[in-house]
Structure formats: structure tokens, C-alpha cells
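Q: what sequence does this backbone want?
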């Protein structure tokens, strides 16, 4: 069975052709990161417009790379939530039109299930029960997988997603967007014990995550060390200097800093450098902050995952989502799993960040059961996974 999948939930337009659960014939990703970089984050309205322009050529490229014709597809899979509603609607409308004209089943896929199923593309025989940690720019959640296709939510973030925290901390100290990969790269060159980040504990004893405390601590450290938009290589400082002519153009570094918030401190959303500076220009203290923050964030993620895996008596652990690219997280979770005797599966980076191959991978489960989605399926920006409230909206098509 061959599935054409489309993913447009955030800022990547992606299309893939996957055969028989895990043979990826093509997986094309058109990234919008250059469009959003200057704003320091994803701008939803721009994202939808970019998807409209990119979806048709991306699907054509995926078919061409797979050496397949549209009529050779057996089903069309598409992300219908969670995500940005305008972005989701672009992919969903396109997929519905294709499915209708081809007279093939449409399968609406939960983006979070897609991230989890990405692990099965390269390791179809992952043993159950398992726990899956999904960590991305929009989500941070732990699921129990008692058997194939079954998900139970164990914990989720009460505030920011892990990737969002990486991005905000990087932005705060002028490292550009998206910040996760930059922090990952710089952290090994810094002192991870220079700043002591507090690890959150839930008062109710739950396994939920919280990243707002780490983010606030990063802001405090950055302010007290004068790292907020104030160091010589910081892109905004460099920009302002360029406008002034020479580095000695009469403007002090503090004058070149962005405006302060009404409270006198700077809020995380105000620092918005356009580009990352060259790694060689980043001062030691910023490297130390990256290393210390990453150590704390990874400890929190690993500690919760180990607790969940122990509690559920699992055989396997899955790590997925964009933040699963983080080398420290991969290494520390691998050591913890090896010690406990659990098999860890982390997809390769291209299947960790948003992609359509993972959406196809998730679509095979309902398709094999003879289920598909109705053509009036709507986008659901807050779609959940693993709760009773979101029983899959499918119809039998055979
Ligand atoms: O899964 P994804 O592509 O999109 C969402 O569904 O959000 O994840 C993107 C997130 C961004 O926040 C990015 O900074 C983060 O993943 N990320 C990383 C790394 N690579 C990507 N975070 C930490 N370390 C990395 N190496
Ligand atoms: Zn994602």
C-alpha cells in the first residue's frame, strides 16, 4: 500500500510517499525558517501564505522523487491537528481535494502520533509496552504505549514546550532563531556548572513538565551578567554599529540595546536578533549560560522519562520531535536506558523535525484496519493525543 502524506501544521511544508508502513520513497521538506527568522519566531499569517505557495510544488517534488504518479497512490494522509489553524487548513484542503479527485481514502493524522510513529520508520519492531517522549517547539509530552496504536498521556508541559524554552533563551542572549540547534552546538564549549538552574517539582507530585522557571532563571542570569543584547558580537549591537558607521561611532553598547520593558527589565519576547552571530564571536559567559541551561533542561526531560518508564514497566523508550535532535538529550537518555535495560529508539534528525513521512507512518494503522476520515474533517488546532476526548474520527471505507 502506498500513501501520499502532507504536513503543514507549523512552519515546514512537507510531502512524502511511503510504501508498506516504512519504505520511504520520498520525504520533501520546504522550510520557512528564513521567512520567520527576522521576527525571532513563527508568524502564523506568514506561515499560512508560505504553505499556499509551497504545497503544490512540494507534493509534485515528492511524487517525482518517489518516481510515482498520483493515480498510483492508495490513500492521502494529512495532519489535521494540533498546530496553527491557518497552516493546518492549507494542507487539509489540498489533501481533501486530492483524495476526492482520486477517489481514494483520506486519513487525518494527529501530528503528535506522527512524531511517535516516526520512530517506527527505521525500527518497525519496537517492543511494547513503551513510553514516548515527544519534545518539539510546540509540544512536550510523555505517553504510555501499551500496544501498537494505543496512547495514554502521562505528563505534559504546564507552560512552555522544551523547544520553545531553547528558542527563547537563545533569542534572549542574541543567538538568533531557531535557538535549539545553536545552544546544542555552543553548549560543549561552555561551563555547564557556571549557572545553577532550579529544577521544577510539581506540588501535586505529577510528572508534568514546566520550563517557565528555567526560562526566568536564564533571564535573571543574563541580566545580572549583562548578557541581554549587550555583548559586542550581539547582532542588534552589530546592526546598530553598522548604521552608525564605525564601532566607535559614539554609541555605547547600552544605548544600542533594544528598548526596555515598562517594568525596567527586558521581557523575553523583546530581544529579537535577526541572525545568529558566528560561533567564534560568542563570549564565554553566553556559552556557559547555554551549557548550564541545556544541562538543566535535559536533566528534567531525562528524569521524567525514566520515572515514567519505571512506573509503566516498559521494554522500550521512544524519543521524538525536533528537540530529539539535541545531542546531549540523545546521549543522556541513551545512558539512562542502557543502565535500566530499555531499548531506546530515536529517529534520525530528518524524521525528528516536522516531516510528512511520519504522517504517512501514522496513517498506515487506520488504513490497515480499513478506516479513513470523512471529507468534512476539520482542522483542530488543539487536538490532543491519548485522552478519551479525542477518539479518532474515522469511517470504515471497506
Ligand atoms: O518538531 P519541530 O520541527 O517543530 C514543532 O513541531 O515544533 O521542532 C522544532 C523545535 C525548535 O524549537 C528547535 O529549536 C528545536 O526543535 N530543536 C532543537 C534542536 N534541533 C531543533 N532543540 C535543541 N537541540 C537541538 N539540536
Ligand atoms: Zn512537530
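A:
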Amino acid at each position: 500500500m502506498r500513501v501520499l502524506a502532507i504536513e503543514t501544521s507549523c512552519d515546514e511544508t512537507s510531502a512524502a510517499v511511503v510504501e508498506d508502513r516504512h519504505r520511504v520513497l520520498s520525504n520533501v521538506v520546504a522550510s520557512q525558517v528564513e521567512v520567520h527568522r527576522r521576527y525571532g519566531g513563527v508568524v502564523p499569517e506568514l506561515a499560512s501564505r508560505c504553505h499556499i505557495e509551497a504545497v503544490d510544488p512540494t507534493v509534485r517534488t515528492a511524487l517525482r522523487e518517489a518516481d510515482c504518479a498520483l493515480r498510483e497512490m492508495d490513500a492521502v494522509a494529512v495532519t489535521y491537528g494540533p498546530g496553527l489553524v491557518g497552516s493546518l487548513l492549507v494542507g487539509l484542503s489540498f489533501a481533501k481535494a486530492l483524495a476526492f479527485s482520486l477517489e481514494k481514502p483520506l486519513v487525518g493524522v494527529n501530528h503528535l502520533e506522527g512524531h511517535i510513529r516516526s520512530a517506527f520508520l527505521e525500527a518497525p519492531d519496537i517492543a511494547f509496552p513503551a513510553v514516548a517522549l515527544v519534545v518539539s517547539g510546540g509540544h512536550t509530552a510523555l505517553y504510555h504505549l501499551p500496544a501498537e496504536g494505543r496512547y495514554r498521556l502521562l505528563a505534559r508541559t504546564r507552560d512552555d514546550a522544551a523547544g520553545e524554552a531553547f528558542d527563547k533563551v537563545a533569542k534572549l542572549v542574541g543567538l538568533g532563531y531557531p535557538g535549539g540547534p545553536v545552544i546544542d552546538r555552543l553548549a560543549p564549549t561552555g561551563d555547564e556548572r557556571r549557572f545553577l538552574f532550579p529544577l521544577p517539582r510539581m506540588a501535586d507530585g505529577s510528572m508534568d513538565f514546566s520550563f517557565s522557571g528555567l526560562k526566568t532563571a536564564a533571564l535573571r542570569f543574563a541580566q545580572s551578567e549583562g548578557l541581554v543584547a549587550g555583548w559586542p558580537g550581539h547582532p542588534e549591537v552589530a546592526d546598530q554599529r553598522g548604521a552608525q558607521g564605525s564601532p566607535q561611532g559614539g554609541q555605547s553598547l547600552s544605548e544600542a540595546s533594544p528598548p526596555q520593558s515598562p517594568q525596567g527589565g527586558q521581557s523575553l519576547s523583546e530581544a529579537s536578533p535577526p541572525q545568529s552571530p558566528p560561533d567564534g564571536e560568542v563570549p564565554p559567559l553566553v556559552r556557559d549560560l547555554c551549557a548550564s541551561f541545556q544541562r538543566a533542561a535535559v536533566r528534567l526531560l531525562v528524569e521524567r522519562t525514566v520515572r515514567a518508564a519505571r512506573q509503566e514497566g516498559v521494554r522500550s523508550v521512544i524519543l521524538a520531535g525536533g528537540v530529539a535532535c539535541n545531542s546531549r538529550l540523545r546521549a543522556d537518555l541513551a545512558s539512562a536506558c542502557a543502565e535500566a535495560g530499555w531499548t531506546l529508539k530515536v529517529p534520525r534528525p530528518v524524521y525528528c523535525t516536522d516531516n510528512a513521512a511520519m504522517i504517512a507512518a501514522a496513517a498506515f494503522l487506520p488504513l490497515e484496519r480499513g478506516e479513513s476520515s470523512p471529507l468534512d474533517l476539520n482542522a483542530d488546532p488543539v487536538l490532543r493525543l491519548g485522552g478519551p476526548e479525542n477518539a479518532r474520527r474515522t469511517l470504515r471505507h471497506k
